[in-house]
UniProtKB/TrEMBL annotation, chain A:
Record keyword Membrane present: yes
SUPFAM superfamilies to which the protein is assigned, alphabetical: Periplasmic binding protein-like II
Regions that span the bilayer: 885-907
Chain intervals with Polar residues compositional bias: 852-861
Name of the protein in its database record: PBP domain-containing protein
Segment forming the signal sequence: 1-24
Alphabetical keyword list: Membrane, Signal, Transmembrane, Transmembrane helix
Claim: Membrane is one of the keywords in the record: yes
Protein source organism: Actinophytocola gossypii
Lineage of source species: Bacteria, Bacillati, Actinomycetota, Actinomycetes, Pseudonocardiales
UniProtKB/TrEMBL annotation, chain B:
Pro residues bias spans: 20-33
UniProt xrefs under SUPFAM superfamilies: Sortase
Protein name: Class E sortase
Pfam families: Sortase
Compositional bias per record (Low complexity), positions renumbered to this chain: 7-19
Keyword annotations from UniProtKB, A to Z: Hydrolase, Membrane, Transmembrane, Transmembrane helix
């Protein structure tokens, strides 16, 4: 390196060192555009009816496509599609020209990742544009006389090849392909194909009916070309075969079904068009033309018109990082705080709320919680913090009760009126609730006029032929004169004049005629107790429960007469439906014939003797499952009786048939089974749950009549208003609502969830953490909003007096000196109402209400501004400051050090050549 | 005798003498200020610091490519044999449809021991003709592993197996094998040769933070995707952000083998090798010891002897210090 190059090299190094610094003016990232539309997704495109050539300008709108959680419902609006036929049919799958809406995996899903049980290629193969695998199947179908010639030595082998060819596989999230065929092997009754990668049956998270476990819809289109509805979206937790998570992208696929351009040798009905009537009249057919039904969603002509709506899910709130090594702070109890705890827990988990501990919430009944709080197991108490509404009594340790959530119980409902549209508003009085909960509606089917001339059948009369049987009927002895269900109750009609209950002939709509018990959970719970307190505090309901008939003659079920408020819901009616007598050849017939006795019981009644009203009861184990039962469109009632044939082991088989037609190798087993889920447009179910759960799943909640006679729904602010009627316990400071004083716009179902924690006996660190948690819940956690650490919808913020009470309790817990906080002197509203209430929600999401006429269907919090454009799963890159600056800094620092060294040397040697040169310059 | 009278004053001066007259005494020089000890120390220290730091920078920029090149040669010679013999799949088990489990351990690992591939072992040769890249890929993605060449992330499948395979590579130091990755275009070929055969991938695209993820479907349907990860920035010496190149396999992949579910934090993207802190500290201490020893030797021996012995020793220790320090930098840089 010569002296000439020295400065050049130095210059280069300096340049390298300086240039990045100079050029490091960071270009600001372009801010992502935030669309402020009401609809999060809107797409319009022309769809072509390939069969007729008609072009339609169709539009799909979705109100929310980002940050979705499991089982959230989004509002979808369709416009400009082809009108459907046969819309009066009892099932969605019978509709002709429907629009099929499915959830699929992937941002550009194929037929194989879309969740739909109709996967036969037959119909679609007649499309002129059919891909080869579909055409091959329909070609075989076209030969009219031969059975389909699939190769195979045994019948099972032939069937295997047949379903492999005929079914479009569904690829589950784990890569396994399911052919979704219901056929079983004839040899052993098991599935035909069951290899690790290919299976002949449906994925295990889908029942045989297919309808309740997947959210796929076959939506009818009105004559004006549109429809609006709610569509449920599922994450991995509730639909593992799709496997949608925050990192696995999914979409909604909308496929309009229209006419197919048929090949020349197609079956006649391929191009015949619909066989059902156009919408408008009451007629329908149960044999629609399947070529224009949901079956042809696979056809290329229909698939090509699809709309794809990309979705992005929020991280599963229930999954916390198992590697989180922070100490856990467990708390157990009330479902009132369940929804908030899921959210706040996620805030702790993801770091939105910073702390050195992790709160872990376990759901449970409040009675069990209080028991565990006061019981020792060895040297420790079973629980050190619980969520409860009633105060803890009998605790060996001094307890502080800190208010943590203001919400209440709710009666959620999914009811479709006689016109098929979802009812948005329902009013219930305490007495109506009493009727619903005391098993007092008439479950039997015989109308009053048919009882003339007939006798009740007790099971002891002898019946030898059909004529004899017709003289009898079976009915519940005490409920015979009561209405058949809530919607047949005149009191209901009086309270809900604007709910469309009757069809054009004035008769009650078919789906509203049957007795549907409300879904309720059986667990010792403060929520059930409060519900019954609400009912029994009402004078009219109290009188009715004691036996007085209402204005129309309905009486309480004697088994429930005189019932008082209880914390555990138990089914008290024990009447077993008398089974109709067997015909002599009962064993020999496949369907086990019985004589027809009106209202007579079935074989399950005979074998199991389950009380009939128990069979009709919808019981769950938690308020949350009550709410999701409405999403599943059925409860746990088992009104049907099904039989199955199971093989008998060889050593237990009888030697010879016992009767003609007896199969010694198989046995018939009976089972009480649930009905199919209700069809959309025919739902009529209520559920007892919490206000927060109803808000979470976007279920409309009923307005409850308070003691002033005014019906109030649990909208924001109504629960704070109920605190005016609160009664405070002088020892613990807990409040409960006095139902006789709830007036004005106050919601009578209001309840407050308290965190109960001991104020002595805990070690300092744990106590400090519990105190911190209580403080968080009462302050930051009480801001209504959409982020994780905010208060979710369904809760009202705590008023200031309760916040101070909570902080006081937290201080007592932190001190651990045994102090029990004094309840606030002015009561829960002593310092006035809370500052910020959440924005008023539209009562219930709009199933038929487009956003232009009302507020946006989704919850609009104070900052509804964070609507983002459609998002797909995105790359998360990383940046490293160290990578960027390591080398330049090294070079810079090195040069600086060299400069310092050089400078010091110059400064310390006055005869240094540089100094002399400088001095010379200056002198001149 | 008669004394002659002395000559008068105007007598000529004496004959010129051969000795030059003594030069007039120079004016007194200003007192020479000795260079203060503090200044000397400061100068020395900063000079050494400057040399050390600039030396490290020079090492990173100029010498690490040589080191990596040498490593690549060694790894390639290790890898050639087993690949040529087409040794059956390793590192785990395969279960066929009939339920038969077959397991094989490659010859370069301890026989009979059911181990996963140890970090640092060569596993594949990666070739990208479009950017003239040909590198041996090692197992593991810590900063240390990546000094030898691109590294395969251990909790993903091997290239050529069904699923998504991640390969990390440096873009600034140690030969910067992946520096040109962002220039790849869709459709260009990437060839990977492993024990299981030769696989050709086609580039799907280059993506960065905020870009949509590639479609997972081809992978769930039984395909294989290779994602190459590196960093890019304003200039070659200042990499900053991660950039990803995805490629999809042409043809059938091998079944996915077992692999660890969890990798230590230093093998994550843009992570420094924390465990490298220990050798760094130890070698720095060694450097200090050597410096002290040299200072002592300077006094006892002499200048040139000390330099003769000391310079190689210092350079050697300094090299190790630099190497350990390089491992502390982010693994993709």
């Amino acid at each position: 390196m010569g002296r000439r190059n020295g400065p050049a090299r130095l210059g280069l190094v300096l340049l390298l060192a300086v240039a990045p610094v100079a050029g490091a003016a960071v270009l600001p990232d372009a801010a992502p555009a935030h669309a402020q539309a009401d609809w999060a997704f809107e797409q319009s495109k022309d769809i072509t009816n390939q069969g007729t050539g008609e072009v339609l300008p169709a539009t799909v709108r979705v109100n929310r496509i980002a940050d979705l959680f499991d089982r959230q419902q989004v509002a979808i609006e369709l416009e400009g599609f082809k009108a459907s036929h046969n819309t009066n049919a009892s099932q969605e799958v019978l509709i002709e020209y429907p629009v099929v809406v499915m959830q699929c995996r992937g941002t550009e899903p194929t037929r194989e990742t879309c969740l739909n049980r109709y996967r036969g290629r037959w119909y679609s193969g007649f499309d002129t544009a059919a891909p080869p695998e579909q055409r091959a199947v329909s070609d075989l179908q076209s030969r009219p006389t031969e059975p389909r010639p699939y190769p195979g030595d045994t019948q099972d082998e032939q069937v295997r090849n047949m379903i492999r060819a005929e079914q479009e596989p569904f690829v589950a999230a784990d890569g396994v392909r399911y052919l979704w065929s219901g056929r079983e092997s004839t040899e052993d009754g098991g599935p035909l194909i069951n290899t690790p990668t290919l299976k002949s049956f449906a994925p295990t998270d889908v029942t045989w009916t297919g309808a309740s476990r997947i959210a796929t819809r076959s939506v009818p289109i009105r004559p004006d070309g549109g429809n609006e509805f709610l569509f449920e979206l599922r994450q991995q937790a509730s639909q593992p075969s799709l496997g949608c998570t925050d990192t696995v992208a999914c979409s909604i696929v909308v496929v309009p079904i229209m006419d197919l351009p048929c090949v020349e040798d197609a079956r006649d009905d391929c191009s015949e068009g619909p066989s059902g009537p156009e919408p408008g009249g009451p007629n329908f057919t149960n044999n629609p033309n399947e070529f224009v039904g949901i079956h042809t969603w696979l056809a290329e002509s229909n698939w090509g018109n699809r709309f794809v709506v990309p979705l992005s899910f929020a991280p599963d709130l229930r999954a916390c990082d198992v590697r989180d090594s922070r100490p856990t702070i467990p708390a157990y109890g009330s479902e009132l705080i369940d929804v908030a705890q899921q959210r706040w827990g996620a805030a702790y988990c993801t770091g939105a709320r910073r702390s050195d501990y992790l709160p872990v919430y376990t759901q449970g009944g409040e009675y069990e919680a209080r028991r565990q709080f006061t019981t020792r197991l060895g040297s420790e108490y079973q629980q050190n913090a619980i969520y409860t509404t009633q105060p803890v009594t009998g605790s060996p340790r001094p307890v502080a009760h800190a208010p943590s959530a203001l919400t209440g119980f709710a009666v959620a409902f999914t009811v479709d009126g006689a016109d098929g549209r979802q009812v948005q508003r329902l009013t219930l009085s305490p007495r109506l609730l009493a009727k619903l909960l005391t098993q007092s509606y008439n479950p039997t089917v015989i109308p009053p006029r048919d009882r003339e001339g007939r006798q009740p059948y007790t099971g002891e009369q002898e019946i030898t032929d059909d004529a004899d049987a017709r003289a009898y009927y079976v009915a519940h002895p005490y409920l015979l004169d009561n209405p058949r269900g809530l919607f047949a109750d005149p009191e209901f009609a009086e309270l809900n004049p604007d709910v469309a209950l009757t069809d054009e002939n004035g008769a009650l709509a078919g789906h509203l005629m049957n007795l549907r018990n409300p879904v309720i959970f059986t667990e010792e719970s403060d929520i059930v107790l409060e519900l019954f307190r609400y009912i029994t505090s009402d004078p009219a309901a109290r009188a009715w429960l004691d036996g007085r008939p209402d204005r129309w003659g309905m009486r309480v079920n004697p088994a429930w007469r005189g019932t008082a408020a209880t914390q555990l819901y138990t089914l008290l009616d024990t009447w077993v439906r008398t089974p109709a007598p067997r015909k002599p050849n009962w064993l020999e017939t496949a369907d086990h014939n019985r004589y027809f006795v009106y209202g007579g019981g079935d074989t399950c009644d005979e074998f199991f003797a389950t009380p009939y009203l128990t069979r009709l009861a919808n019981i769950t184990d938690s308020a949350e499952s009550s709410a999701t039962s409405l999403l599943d469109r059925r409860g746990s009632a088992t009104p049907a009786c099904a039989s199955d044939s199971v093989p008998i082991p060889e050593d237990e088989q009888a030697d010879e048939p016992q009767f003609p037609g007896d199969n010694v190798t198989r046995d018939v087993v009976f089972e009480e089974v649930e009905n199919n889920p209700d069809e959309y447009g025919q739902r009529a179910l209520l559920a007892i749950t919490t206000v927060a759960h109803a808000a979470l799943y976007e279920l409309p909640t009923a307005r409850l009549v308070n003691s002033a006679g005014r019906p109030v729904a649990p909208t924001p602010g109504t629960m704070v208003a109920a605190l005016n009627a609160a009664v405070q316990d002088p020892t613990s400071g807990t409040v409960r609502v006095d139902h006789r004083r709830v007036a004005g716009g106050a919601y009578p179902g209001t309840m407050v969830a308290y965190t109960a924690a001991p104020t002595s006996g805990l070690d300092r660190t744990t106590a400090a953490r519990y105190a911190d948690l209580i403080e968080f819940m009462a302050t930051d956690g009480q801001t209504p909003g959409d982020t994780l650490a905010d208060l979710p919808p369904g809760y009202d913020p705590l008023p200031p007096a309760m916040v101070r009470q909570a902080l006081d309790a937290a201080a007592a817990v932190r001190e651990q000196q045994g102090r029990v906080p004094v309840p606030p002197a002015g009561g829960p509203l002593g310092d006035g109402p809370p500052d910020a209430l959440p924005a008023a929600q539209e009562p219930g999401p709009g199933s038929g209400v487009p956003p232009e006429t009302t507020t946006s269907p989704q919850d609009t919090g104070p900052e509804s501004a964070e609507e983002e454009v459609a998002q797909v799963a995105r790359t998360e890159g990383e940046e490293s400051w160290l990578a960027r600056w390591a080398i330049p800094l090294l070079i810079g620092f090195g040069l600086l050090a060299a400069l310092v060294a050089f400078g010091t040397q110059v400064a310390s040697r006055p005869d240094h050549p540089l100094r002399r040169a400088l001095a010379g310059l200056v002198r001149r | 005798m008669t004394v002659q009278a002395s000559p008068p004053a105007e007598a000529v001066p004496a004959v010129e003498e051969a000795v030059a007259p003594p030069p007039p005494p120079a004016p007194p020089a200003p007192p020479a200020r000795p260079e203060s000890f503090a200044a000397k120390v400061v100068t020395r220290v900063f000079a050494l610091l400057a040399a050390g730091v600039l030396g490290f920078a020079g090492y990173l920029v100029l010498l690490t490519p040589l080191e990596q090149d040498a490593n690549q040669d060694v790894l390639y010679s290790e890898l050639r044999g087993p690949i040529a013999e087409a040794v059956p799949p390793y590192a785990g088990r395969e279960e066929s449809e009939d339920g038969i489990i077959s397991r094989a351990v490659p010859p370069i690992y301890a026989d009979g021991e059911d181990t996963l591939i140890p970090a640092g072992a060569p596993i594949a040769v990666l070739e990208i003709p479009a950017i003239e890249l040909r590198q041996v890929v090692v197992e593991g993605t810590s900063s240390d592993d990546l000094t030898a060449g691109p590294g395969h992330r251990r909790d993903t499948v091997l290239p050529g197996q069904q699923g998504v395979s991640l390969v990390y590579g440096r873009a600034a130091t140690f030969g910067a094998p992946f520096a040109d990755l962002p220039h790849l275009r869709r459709g260009q070929a990437i060839t990977v040769v492993t024990f299981q055969g030769e696989f050709t991938y086609r580039v799907e695209g280059v993506r960065r933070d905020g870009d949509p993820l590639p479609d997972i479907e081809p992978v769930t349907e039984g395909g294989s995707r290779l994602t190459l990860v590196t960093v890019e920035g304003g200039n070659p010496l200042q990499p900053e952000r991660t950039v990803f190149v995805d490629a999809l396999l042409d043809g059938e992949p091998q079944p996915a083998a077992e692999r660890p579910g969890l990798i230590p934090p230093e093998e994550q993207s843009l992570a420094s090798d924390r465990p490298a802190l220990l050798p760094f500290v130890l070698w720095t201490q060694a450097l200090v010891v050597v410096a002290v020893a040299l200072a002592w030797a300077r006094v006892r021996w002499g200048r040139w002897e000390t330099h003769l012995v000391g310079v190689p020793v210092v350079l050697a220790v300094l090299w190790y210090v630099y190497e350990a320090a390089a491992r502390l930098l982010p693994n993709l840089a």
